[in-house]
Amino acid sequence: MIFENHLFEQIINNIDVGIIYIDKNHNIKQVNQYAQEALGIIIDPHKSHLGGKINPGDIVVIVDNHIGNDDGGLTPEDLKVININDKDIKTNDTLIGIGIFKNAEIKPIYKHCRNLGAVCEFKIKTNHLGFHIEAYIDSIEKENVIIVNGIKYSIKFFNSIGHIVVIDKISGNIKFFQAKGYTVRKENIRRLLQGNTFLPKGDKSFGSINLHEKKLEEIVECDALISDLDLILQEKLSSIQNKFYELNQRPALCSIHTIKNNHEVAGAFITLNDASEPYKMLKNRNAILSELEKIQNNYITQNYTFPPNSFQDFVGNSAKINEVKYLAYKASSFKLTVIITGESGTGKSQLAREIHRLYKGDSPFIEVNCSSIPHNLFESELFGYVGGAFTGALPSGKDGYFQMANSGTIFLDEVGEIPNEIQVKLLHVLQNRKFYKIGSSKPTNIDVRIIAATNMDLRKEVQNGSFREDLYYRLNVFPIKIPPLRERTSDIYILINNILKNLSNFHNISYKQLSGEALNKLLNYSWPGNVRELENTLERAMTLCETNILYPEHIYLEDITSQNNILTLKNMLDIAEKRALEDAIIQYNHNKNLIIKNLNISKSSFYEKIKRYNIKF
Ligand SMILES: Nc1ncnc2c1ncn2[C@@H]1O[C@H](COP(=O)(O)OP(=O)(O)OP(=O)(O)O)[C@@H](O)[C@H]1O
């Protein structure tokens, strides 16, 4: 019976045994799904990252059972690139380290030990540069675990393994996580810390590796298997039945048989069973774990998903800003009227531009600052006029902003400043999608998407009569509120990196690093002027700085009130505690039990604090 190739592939991909078929020169002809999983070629498709390399400023998290083993021969000196420079750390030590790549200014967080006992807790749990990071070795499950903002990246080990996760300094996204098959992909810790590149993972992992162009030894690291295979191909052995090999650091039970064509050896096929855990158990366990993970990370995996890299210039990765991005992404798919609210400098205009770009980037985007138009010119600026409409009018007439924005977006910034008589006209445009130029009785039809923004409380303006209620409801179709920077401090580090990069390009000066003290000063400030104030502060600091490092004295903060009001220790602790609770509520998606467990407090203390700080839950 002759199978068509794709049917054969379907069959072998659905059986619970790994199959690798090679020709007599070790060229790979077929590797089924099971074998790819067991060898670490296929990785959990829910997690992914692009290819790249670690760049200066990226946050590196390492969990290594034995320095120098299964990590590419890492040496304690190699750790200097993440600012871990400790003579007490020796080869074979166990290490957990969090540091900034190639930034000698910011202190790392790490712990190490010699002869870690079989069952003992070795863990770091921290809030570093705004990221919730938990890293530990689970000696019972034999698993090295790194959790970043609630998302778990773990890797099983047999004897030891060097696990590494990298957070991108610009986007705040996970840029790299270690996974099975890293030896084949040449992604051990040492090579990565030396600045070598890594491949993409996820749906398109190994997209760049065409298995059919590889030799077996390029995807399977195991000298014993390769030499047994040669014995079989040379017909010195007829077959091998159920022999244990360690393939890519994972134990596997393998059999090898020859394949003959006209009585000549044409190749061999290897069957393998992942022997690190019974496969079925692993499958069930993974299904349960992934369900649990989904429930835990509900807010990330279900509520706030949008394609990665959708936003080019709107930076931030905190739970609060992810919610904003999610809403903006949703809004961009429809021609809805959007109103963006938030304090001055939070990025309302920036977000409006992104919504427009995602929706219809090649059409016009007309930005109108309603607070800068004199009242008597409002109507002509917005709607235009026909020739001779009034004294001083251009004979040819003039198009208004609405007409200029036709087929695209009009962004009405500071919409609360629109005078009353124009509010009626705006309402008319919103309802009828047409307007009248001054001096014309002929309506102009338009096809425009309206995005408005304000830092006022428009509801209050409605109550005190300065904003029309009907217009308020017409505008308030899809509201997006951007939280102030002080409520999302985890965005500050990546915002700083973006701003420094943009500023050094703009001023054509070399990239400047922040000293640890300077970074702390920025992280501990309340930013009343939000991102705009952060930009101004960094621009001033860059101008003042003669060297390549920004020190606290280059950073001038204007918030006189918060600097002069010296808080008591009790006040400071209260503020920190309130913030921790608010962060946890968002991070654990209002799940009481998870919040209580992760903050390590009792139920009664949780309720007492919620009440004391008047936190809405
Ligand atoms: N999330 C962000 N990512 C990158 N840059 C940002 C972000 N938010 C704000 N900015 C930058 O901060 C500055 C202020 O942002 P923007 O003008 O959009 O704020 P705004 O809320 O519209 O302020 P206002 O209410 O005063 O008009 C801009 O230079 C903008 O590029």
TrEMBL record:
Domain Sigma-54 factor interaction, residue spans: 314-543
Gene3D superfamilies named among the record's database cross-references: 1.10.8.60, Homeodomain-like, P-loop containing nucleotide triphosphate hydrolases, PAS domain
SMART domains documented for this protein: AAA
CDD domains: AAA
InterPro entries: AAA+_ATPase, AAA_lid_NorR, Homeodomain-like_sf, P-loop_NTPase, PAS, PAS-like_dom_sf, Sigma_54_int, Sigma_54_int_dom_ATP-bd_1
Annotated source species: Marinisporobacter balticus
PROSITE patterns in UniProt: SIGMA54_INTERACT_1, SIGMA54_INTERACT_3, SIGMA54_INTERACT_4
SUPFAM superfamilies hit by this protein: Homeodomain-like, P-loop containing nucleoside triphosphate hydrolases, PYP-like sensor domain (PAS domain)
GO biological process terms, semicolon-separated: regulation of DNA-templated transcription
GO molecular function, one term: ATP binding
Transmembrane domains' residue ranges: none
Keyword list, A-Z: ATP-binding, Nucleotide-binding, Transcription, Transcription regulation
Protein name, entry field: Sigma-54 interacting transcriptional regulator
